[in-house]
Amino acid sequence: MLSLLGKYDPLKGEMAQILDKDGRIVNPDLEPKLSNDDLKTLYRFMVLSRVADDKALKLQRQGRFGTYAPVRGQEAAEVGSAYALPRSDWMFPTFREMAAMVVKGMPLESVFLYWMGNELGNAAPEGVNIFPISIPVGTQPLHAVGAAWAAKIKGDDVATLVYFGDGGTSEGDFHEAMNFAGVFQAPTVFFCQNNQYAISIPRARQTAAKTLAQKAIAYGFAGVQVDGNDVLAVYAITKEAIAKAHAGGGPTFIEAYTYRLSHHTTSDDATRYRTKEEVAFWEERDPIKRFQVYLQGKGLWADDYEKGLLDEVTQLVDKATDKAENWPAPSPEDVFKYTYAEMPWTLKEQLAKLLETLG
Amino acid sequence: MARLNIVDAINLALHQEMERDERVVVLGEDVGRNGGVFRVTVGLLEKFGENRVIDTPLAESGIVGTAIGMAVYGLRPVAELQFMGFLYPAFDQLISHAARIRTRSRGRFHCPLVVRMPYGGGIKAPEHHSESTEAILAHTPGLKVVIPSTPYDAKGLLISAIRDPDPVIFLEPKKVYRAIKEEVPEEEYTIPLGQAKILREGGHLSLFSWGAMVPPSLKAATLAQKEGIEVEVIDIRSIYPFDIDTIINSVQKTGRAIVVHEAARTCGFGAELVAQINEKAMLYLQAPVERITGFDTVFPLLKAEEYYLPNENQIIKEIKKVMTF
Ligand SMILES: Cc1ncc(C[n+]2csc(CCOP(=O)(O)OP(=O)(O)O)c2C)c(N)n1
Questions:
Q1: How far, in Å, CA of B246 to CA of A126, rounded?
Q2: Atom 20 of ligand 1 has which residue's CA nearest to it?
Q3: Is the peptide bond between B167 and the residue preceding it cis, with omega within 30 degrees of 0?
Q4: What is the pLDDT of residues B16-59, one digit of tens each?
Q5: Quick check: helix, strand or coil at residue A281?
Q6: Does the domain at residues A10-328 carry the CATH identifier 2.20.28.10?
Q7: pLDDT at A140 over 60
Q8: Helix, coil or strand: residue A255
Q9: Is A92 helix (H, G, I), strand (E, B) or coil?
Q10: Average pLDDT over residues A153-180
Q11: Domain residue spans in chain A?
Q12: Scanning every residue of chain A, which has its alpha carbon at the shortest distance from the alpha carbon of B298?
């Protein structure tokens, strides 16, 4: 397989792509060698993400969910990258990575529980290497670098992958993370989902640079822009960056060029700052449709397959919803007991008082 | 006069100050085209243009740091941070620079900067969207800290903050952003920083609070009155500098006091008030000064939020306890 990382020059705005917007293979020599089962699994995760997303929005409107940040439009970027991450590697997500987290092994009911307002949903099960969702934008790349660096110091064969948005690249912490990663050759993949907006602020207001990927050059390592709506290209690039990290080749920056088809969150109204035409342009580049055409061409997709799949994932999403909704409410103790390994007297006193007030 | 909520009152103050003084500029994330995530800056971009209403990159240190340069150079920046939980990237700029420019230049320079942000809990928001850490700011020499609890005060205090020669942190209690409407004069007016407001007079007990804790304090006072307890409710409004005279006069009159705040208990601003009362009114006290506060824990997500925030039932209980000491 050709090396993708050196092939595309971000300074020239070159972008890696395997499937074009109509699902045609444009770079056959780059096509990753995935089994039919793998291809169908990628597709299933993308459809699952779409169905779970729609459900979350519906639940939020009914008051059964808190604020939620939809994935819609970014399924290929999330699923393709997460699928390339070995189980023993670590993932550092933001609030928008529902799909990536599920691929990595987070139970959907946990993600739902979290957005329903129970912090227990932030606890990844044992063996699922996912840091708690980071809401302060741009802060978590440093943790990914630190963890990767620690793995290197300890001699573990572990790499880390951190997600963040185009907006995140403007925070100081992001730049410190890139710099540390370069200096210490940390086995980290910086995965930027450039979905063109940080709430209402367009990408052009975050940086005067032509691409985000080119930022890596100044920190001394490779940066590559990939069509984020092309799941095959995202998978292939991430796979190579991860392999490079494991082989001692240090960090890589991947800019997945994509689009947030929905509102920033359920509290946002995207019609205030972008046009219908712009959204329609990107609807045509829907990552799921494109991959479906590709699968169909390979004889892996048909109408009845789609129907069966939709039934299966809808049931899964409904089950996750039930499980999360029927989870026992957090107790007063739950507010206190994770603050420290051992509760100081101040907390014990405050908890006792709360219990007394509640009667 | 129009009946406005806090969001509208702040918006009106910004419009009027920008109209009156062309040195005033507004900058922050989503403040322009989007009009702010809470719509506090709606209409400013259309009226005053891109040079004075600035959508910035997503970087709080960048916003506050450049606003310091602007302020010292001669503008009057009003920076918006989207939530108090995202203030911390700007701490170095605020604490090491904004607060110290006057001191470090021995008065040659000063920093007439306002940093506004929504703060506090009660809107069932995600993580980092509910905290109140006003005490950290009040603890920083060189910063002023203001918290309005009503639309009328929001307008008058913001105008004072913008005209103030020193950096002012303006905290907006988002739980009551739209909860209260009242008559707000169309004309400009100022409310001096550093003055508390007596919302309700009473001779038996002084109840001090600010921000979104004012409404439950008032409700508790009404309930107490039915039981013959006359509670004096005081909105501190200005956390730093604070109105020591109003506070001490009240305690000297009532002999009993409670402080209510939603911030964590330990080193919360309530602790400072208790210390001041002890220093200046000890011999008037008939009972220990009590605090009703949030906990020394991370602010819980929405399913457990009700446990965290003080409410009128807790306040009335505490009032009775202090009265029967
Ligand atoms: C430090 C910080 N500042 C502000 C916010 C409020 N906020 C939440 S998401 C967001 C935009 C993020 O944009 P981007 O990084 O591009 O990611 P996206 O939401 O598009 O996935 C902002 C400003 C925050 N969460 N953290």
A1: 56
A2: A198
A3: no
A4: 999 999 999 999 999 999 999 999 999 999 999 999 999 999 99
A5: helix
A6: no
A7: yes
A8: strand
A9: strand
A10: 98
A11: 10-328, 330-359
A12: A339
> Is A334 in Cβ contact with B126 (below 8 Å)?
no
Taking Cα atoms as reference points, which of B299, B288, B279 lies closest to residue B323? Answer: B288
Q: Do B138 and B12 lie in a common domain?
A: yes
User: Are B285 and B239 within one domain?
Assistant: yes
Summarize pLDDT for B312-323 with one digit per residue, the tens.
Answer: 999 999 999 999
Three-state SS at B118:
strand
Question: What interface predicted TM-score (ipTM) does this complex get?
Answer: 0.97
Q: Whose CA is nearest to atom 11 of ligand 1?
A: A198
Q: Report the pLDDT averaged over residues A299-312.
A: 98
Quote the domain boundaries for residue B294. Answer: 197-323
Beta bridge partners, B112, equal: none
pLDDT at site A1: 46
What's the CA gap between A64 and A50, in Å, rounded? 19
Confidence label for A2 from pLDDT (cuts 50, 70 and 90):
low
- Are B237 and B298 contained in the same domain? yes
Same domain, B204 and B145: no
Q: Are residues B239 and B202 located together in one domain of the fold?
A: yes
Q: 3-class SS at A355?
A: helix
Do residues B174 and B250 both lie within one domain?
A: no
Strand partners of residue B290: B258
Nearest to A172 among B61, B296, B305 (CB): B61
Instruction: Note whether B275 and B209 are same-domain residues.
Output: yes
